[in-house]
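User: I'm curious whether this sequence folds into something compact or stays loose and floppy. Could you predict its structure so I can see for myself?
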Amino acid sequence: MWLKGGLIIYSLDKLEPMVWSSHDEVQSLLKKFYQVPEMENNKKSMKLELYYKEKASKSQDQLKKQNRKTEEVKVGQFILQIDQGLVKGQY
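Assistant: Here's the prediction. I'll summarize afterward.
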């Protein structure tokens, strides 16, 4: 997937901005950008606070899953040790 983009650099000592890749291309891209309805743009954007909340929630879920797997492994190892007679005591 290719992203189209351009660059406009304003300078204090020059009247006209420096434009990359070409003036016509940048104007075309800006025109397309401003033609997209604001509601359409807002659907794709996300507030930073919401983004971090979602990332934190996903991280917590991953941590819970990993902790569950770790406990399963520990229980499995303990059962194996009991079966092999490595653990002695009352059960």
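Summary: The CA atoms of residues 10 and 16 lie 7 Å apart. The first strand starts at residue 7 and ends at 9.
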